What we know:
mainly alpha; 0% strand
Amino acid sequence: xxxxxxxxxxxxxxxxxxxxxxxxxxxxxxxxxxxxxxxxxxxxxxxxxxxxxxxxxxxxxxxxxxxxxxxxxxxxxxxxxxx
Length: 83
């Protein structure tokens, strides 16, 4: 079964939108180093700081986020009850 052209276009547009948002975010917030000497590695990871002192960025690639968003939209669309 081939995916719908609308779902493919939605995936493409969502990927482009996420990519643009990430570019804008990275432009505004360059890598900021946090120097907190009294925290251990696990506490720093819990609050979103890597072990080298930089703030954790995005956890998932753009393609994964877009696929999950499209899958969520598809789930909502198919779960609607026809009246």
